[in-house]
Amino acid sequence: MTPAVPPAQVRAFRLRRQGVVDRDGAGPVDVARRLVGVQAQVPSAAAQAVAARTAGGTADDGTVEAALAAGTLLRTWSVRGTLHLLAADQAPAVLALLAAARTWDKGAWQREFATAAQMSALAAAAAEVLADAVLTREELTSALVAHTRDAGLAEALGSGWGALLKPLAWQGLLCHGPPAGSRVTFTSPGVLVPGWPGLPDPDEAARTVVPAFLAAHGPATATAFDAWLLRGGTPKARLRRWFADLRDAGSLTEVTVDGEVRYARTVDLDDLTDLAGASPPGLRLLGPFDPYVLGAGTADPDLVPPEHRRAVSRAAGWIAPVVLDAGRAVGTWSAEEDRLVVTPFADPVPSAALEGERAVWSRVLGRPLTLPA
């Protein structure tokens, strides 16, 4: 018989596994590994997501920068084509799944950005020019244009959107390097990470990444995993095989959530069951672009009420800070100078219930916040 798991238990499981309830993260590498990446398109948001999952960290305590400098953390284009902080020992497997989809081979992508021949030439050039160098965007653009002898690529390479650089990052040829003042730099993961192994076989990588995702973001469907990974870009037959093989090997078990068949790690079934009698997690505040929200996606009605989705998923791709009650979004919030301002979706949130989170975010942001009277 397929175990049934209520949605409230799914939310409670995710909150605990992601370090939101106990704030037991050991630092940026531990948090990034546990979450299978922390979105870092906005660096301050990534630092807040890490600090909010630790007992005493702050967003400006320098631990992210130290881990990047030590090569235990990478900042690179990752899932959904967005910049992420990845644990260096987990990054090869994540990148292998992204590279395997070869989205840059699709006709529509090539018509918009570059041909297959141009991307092949760029990959060969990147492997050479970044083998032992750290370059600014301007230096990288000049070097790649010179090696490919294709001046037509210069404008796209120089774009801040990184359309041509993302496939290179997914192939493990490129990542962000140490900042040069206010300028972004690029290098090879092999320059930053001692003993960088290169990318594994995609099927081998899936045996690592799928369970890691479900350990933090499960139970979930294969479709939900692919939405998180590549906005649905993985070939469907390959995606089904990854999950079926893990299920047949006993690593995954099917469960139902409100009648929908999902997958959980078999070793997590007892933890899910134990949550049936546990008290629901109380109020929690999460910062912008938080992995708890991005893992499920704002289209998940059990996370964000559909009528309030636009309050969370805003213009230009901005994901707002959210107020959670039992793991479900009940409002948004902001820190306006020294005031913590909550905008509820419906019922007001009592100030007394927010006192604990006010203290946490005063610590994370490094300044005392007050609640409205």
What is the number of strand segments? Answer: 12
Q: Could you estimate the helical fraction of the residues in percent?
A: 40-55%
| Spatial order of the strands forming the largest sheet | 9-10-11-12
What about the largest sheet? 4 strands, antiparallel
Instruction: Enumerate how many helices there are, as a single number.
Output: 18
Residue share in β-strands? 5-15%
- Rg (CA only): 21 Å
Shape: globular
Terminal residue distance: 52 Å
Low-confidence parts: none
Order of helices and strands: HHEHHEEHHHEHHHEEHHHHEEHEHHEEEH
Structural class: alpha+beta
Mean pLDDT: 96
Q: Could you characterize what this model shows?
A:
The chain has 373 residues and is an alpha+beta fold. It has a domain at 284-365. It has 18 helices and 12 strands. The strands form 4 sheets. It has a 4-stranded antiparallel beta sheet. Strands 1-3-2 form a 3-stranded antiparallel beta sheet. Strand 10 and strand 11 (328-336) form a beta hairpin. The protein is globular, with a radius of gyration of 21 Å. The termini are far apart. The relative contact order is 0.14. The model has no long low-confidence stretch (mean pLDDT 96). Pfam families: AlkZ-like. GO terms for molecular function: DNA binding. InterPro entries: AlkZ-like. Keywords: DNA-binding.
